[in-house]
Amino acid sequence: PPGAARPPAASKWVRLNVGGTYFVSTRQTLCREPKSFLCRLCCQDGPELGSDKDETGAYLIDRDPTYFGPILNYLRHGKLIINKELAEEGVLEEAEFYNIASLVRLVKERIRDNENRTSQGPVKHVYRVLQCQEEELTQMVSTMSDGWKFEQLISIGSSYNYGNEDQAEFLCVVSRELNNSTNGIVKEPSEKAKV
């Protein structure tokens, strides 16, 4: 009969009100992590948690909705996807609050990787200027030690030889990265380019 009470539509779908933003998901998704806060909230309707609903019947969670997206998506497909503008620390905070251990581990790994990348800081370079004559150029560039990179060639005119032809002279600028593992000590290559 039309007046009969229908089973609640929430049987499969769950509405969450996270800090004023609504999210809709399934119980199956929210209970992907059995020990998580979301699983306790939605799958064990205990009297103590059952009261935290707003007027629409959505579960009220007093957390920042910005960081809830990556949490919910992780429960949906098991991947950690964080938009560039979101701070990973914020996602970590929420993962810890919702007690999703595997996600906490993933975010910590991501933060550690990023720190390793950024702790190297801007790459420092050592520059060296070598002066050589035109005929020495090829040999000098081809015998540069490993790690040195050719940067720039500056012609500085010619030096007059006593022979018939002028020899063009060049300044050759080379650089190499300053390796962090040496703690700022530049290991000079033993064989210097011809000067």
TrEMBL record:
Gene Ontology biological process terms, A to Z: proteasome-mediated ubiquitin-dependent protein catabolic process; protein homooligomerization
Domain of life: Eukaryota
GO cellular component: Cul3-RING ubiquitin ligase complex; cytoplasm
Domain BTB, chain residue ranges per copy: 12-115
One of the record's GO molecular function terms: cullin family protein binding
Pfam families the record matches: BTB_2
Protein name as it appears in the record: KCTD2 protein
